[in-house]
Amino acid sequence: MKYDYLIVGSGLFGSIFAYEATKRNKKCLVIDKRSHIGGNIYTKEVEGIQVHEYGAHIFHTSNQEVWDYINQFATFNRYTNSPIARYGNEIYNMPFNMNTFNKMWGVITPQEAKAKIEAQIQEAGITEPKNLEEQAISLVGQDIYEKLVKGYTQKQWGKPCTELPPFIIKRLPVRFTYDNNYFNDLYQGIPIGGYTQIIEKMLSGSEVRLNCDFFEHRETLTKEADKIVFTGMIDQYYDYCYGTLEYRSLRFETEVLDMDNYQGNAVVNYNEYEVPYTRIIEHKHFEFGTQPKTVITREYPVTWKAGMEPYYPMNDEKNNTLYQKYLRLAAEENNVIFGGRLGLYQYFDMHHVIAKALECVKKELID
Ligand code: FAD
Ligand code: UDP
Description:
Oligomer: single chain
Domain UDP-galactopyranose mutase C-terminal: 147-347
CATH class of the largest domain: Alpha Beta
CATH topology of the largest domain: Rossmann fold
Enzyme class: isomerase
Shape: globular
Strand content: 15-25%
Order of helices and strands: EHEEEEHEEHHHHEHEHEHEEEEEHEHH
Distance between the termini: 24 Å
Largest sheet: 7 strands, mixed
Strand order of the largest sheet: 7-6-12-13-14-11-15
Bound molecules: flavin-adenine dinucleotide, uridine-5'-diphosphate
Structural class: alpha/beta
Family: Belongs to the UDP-galactopyranose/dTDP-fucopyranose mutase family.
Cofactor: FAD
EC number: 5.4.99.9
Number of strands: 16
């Protein structure tokens, strides 16, 4: 055995594990099937602007340990996410707050907004929300559901809101204050200089092989290390023996524009179903850029098929039940650890992934 650990995937989970293991004198081989490190948090400089190649990545957390951990590797700026939602030529503030309610209904006070929402819940006759549609209506009322949730969500997930689980929409705050901050967390920001430098530092003590798909060299790679940390798709690891888990994919279309400011905000959501993309991000606004040019990315949701990037696990009941079967196989393994968004099949943000990776490090390398 040449290595203590073979780490499949150089995303955040795999890179934290590699960093902590090499710190403890373990020898790690990190492989990735992509041509670069960092997984979905990879950023690349274009025209002096850090471009988030796989969609907007805003770091946010209330977990002190996670915040201190990530701050070893970068300094974060003061960016606060305040997306704009566009429905036709109407502009609304996100997340749902008094600015949104005022624009939608002309209400001024929290009492008026609550009364309006309550009346719409009564009219819809919802008591116990069973799906995303009912959950959204019971949080923000019918009008906001129709304009700001229904089309966006159906595009994003490729299913009507009545067939989606309520938890997806519960990620978003609903506030009866005039506060456009998308997150409730204590800490938030974008790493100055981008995310890739964080991963470079984490992987500095490991051997890294890019353009290397685990499944193409499974036998030889497995022989090279004592243990495997696997952050790819768990169903693929088991050769889909119980069936395929569902994912949602995305297509990103990036353009450099010869103007200094395209949309005046980092994130603009397009909430009508008829517009094929869900959002346009303008990267320079994540870092208060003043460059003469700008870079924008349109994000198109796509039905996932084998061979595409599986960006989002579809955590509905059917898929979660199937995942539990794979989890039982994983629990039998002595030399394989599953981690990350794909290995654990969960809609994790970066701070969740860091917490999970540190938990794994503690169990595997410390306790
Ligand atoms: P990944 O980044 O997916 O890394 C897994 C790596 O494994 C990949 O590099 C992949 O190429 C590699 N791999 C897979 N299979 C194989 C194989 N067979 N062989 C070799 N290599 C393999 N989080 C936030 O906190 N804030 C945000 O604003 C935010 N926005 C997001 C926006 C989008 C569009 C998406 C998709 C995600 C967003 N996230 C956000 C979530 C964030 O991207 C994830 O939490 C984080 O990147 C997950 O890290 P990971 O290591 O688990 O997985
Ligand atoms: N959502 C919506 N309208 C919006 C933004 C989000 O209905 O303008 C819903 C949608 O279902 C989405 C979910 O809220 O999947 C979570 O949104 P978030 O911005 O957290 O999604 P992510 O950044 O993870 O894609």
